[in-house]
Amino acid sequence: MPILDFLNHLLNFAAPAGCLAVLLAGGARLVWRKKSHLLPWYHMASINFLLGILVLALGLVLTGQDGRMGTYAVLVLGMSTCQWLMSGGWRH
After folding, report:
1. Where does the chain cross the membrane (predicted)?
2. Rounded to an integer, what distance in angstroms lies between the CA atom of residue 51 and that of residue 53?
């Protein structure tokens, strides 16, 4: 496989985790404006992105296919729980 094709596949594999990480971190700042957050938004986004890549890779290994709906469901649940914890949601 040529290197450009490999990079294209790799970016498309990581795109759902990256988009969701930025949306969750930015959305937490919009929803809870007056609340003091535990981490800056870019730290939250990077932690969510790393968790998302881990979930997607684990889903690929366990199911043998990329892009399964079950993997995406676990991705959303895991990253949203992580964002809730990083935003201090347990304090409300």
Report:
1. 13-32, 44-63, 69-86
2. 6
Instruction: Mark out the alpha helices in 32-89 (DSSP H runs).
Output: 41-63, 69-86
Residue whose structure tokens are 């366990």: 62
For residue 75, which amino acid is it? L
d(C-alpha 69, C-alpha 87), whole Å: 27
Tokens of 20: 């969701």
Cα–Cα distances in Å, from 29 out to 48, 62, 88? 15, 34, 12
Per-residue pLDDT tens digits for 20-43: 999 999 988 888 777 666 788 899
